[in-house]
Amino acid sequence: MTPGGAATGQAPVSAVTATGSTAVVACAACHYAQHTHDPIARRFCTATVAGGFNRGCVCIGGHDEPEKETS
User: Which top-rank group of organisms is this from (predicted)?
Assistant: First the structure.
């Protein structure tokens, strides 16, 4: 595996659908949509891919909606 390669051997992918809309980009580490990651999950998954680790997911909340900003 090359440095920075995906732990699962798969890179995130986006595609244009038949209707012309853009498909959701999946995380290379956990395969949930990137927009559903909170800051901790984003950092965890980035480190997982960069280090070539194969570990579980720390994503929380609903995986269908982006994490809401908290103040």
Answer: Bacteria
